[in-house]
Amino acid sequence: MDAYQRVLGMTLASLPFWLALSLYGLLTVGGSTASQIFQTLIVAISSDVIATVLFFKATDLVRGSMQKLGAVEATQSMEVLFALIGEILFLSIAFPSSLSLIGILLVMLGMMLHSYISSRTKKSVMQLNA
């Protein structure tokens, strides 16, 4: 499957969950404001749709090189930082607290470490098969 088919598949497969979550939120809290819906739309298009398609396209391009694939996967952790910066600049959210920044760094480090270990594991498996 290409990048667009993978994103479409993920979207369709997770749609029932998001509809159920939306219904729960509507029944327990009420509807969203127009501002919240607009902000969600911006984040969904920029951070989710565009970034996910680009990520999958990049993994398709480097499929043959485990080292390059590990590097592409490590860049995924930077999406957290770019999404935060975009929300601060364009949506005027409050700057995160120190505890939030520590959490963001831990998530990014965890994703980079996972990509590094995955890359090494894939490389050693390929060497054993050769």
Structural summary, described in words:
The longest helix is centred in the last third of the chain and has 32 residues, at about 100-130. With about 130 residues, the chain is mainly α. It has five helices and no strands. The chain is about 85% helix and about 0% strand. The protein is globular and about 60 Å long.
Write the layout of secondary structure elements.
Elements: H1 3-28, H2 34-61, H3 66-75, H4 78-90, H5 98-129
- DSSP helical segment count: 5
Shape type: globular
Query: SSE order, as H and E?
Result: HHHHH
Helix content: over 70%
The biggest sheet, with number of strands, parallel, antiparallel or mixed sense and barrel status, is:
none
Q: What Rg is obtained from the alpha carbons, in whole angstroms?
A: 18 Å
Which residue ranges are poorly predicted, with pLDDT under 50 across at least 5 consecutive positions? none
Average pLDDT metric: 83
Instruction: Report the β-strand fraction as a percent range.
Output: under 5%
Structural class, please? Answer: mainly alpha
Number of strands: 0
- Could you tell me how far the N terminus lies from the C terminus, measured between alpha carbons in angstroms? 26 Å
Short synopsis of the structure:
The chain has 5 helices and no strands. With 130 residues, the protein is mainly alpha-helical.
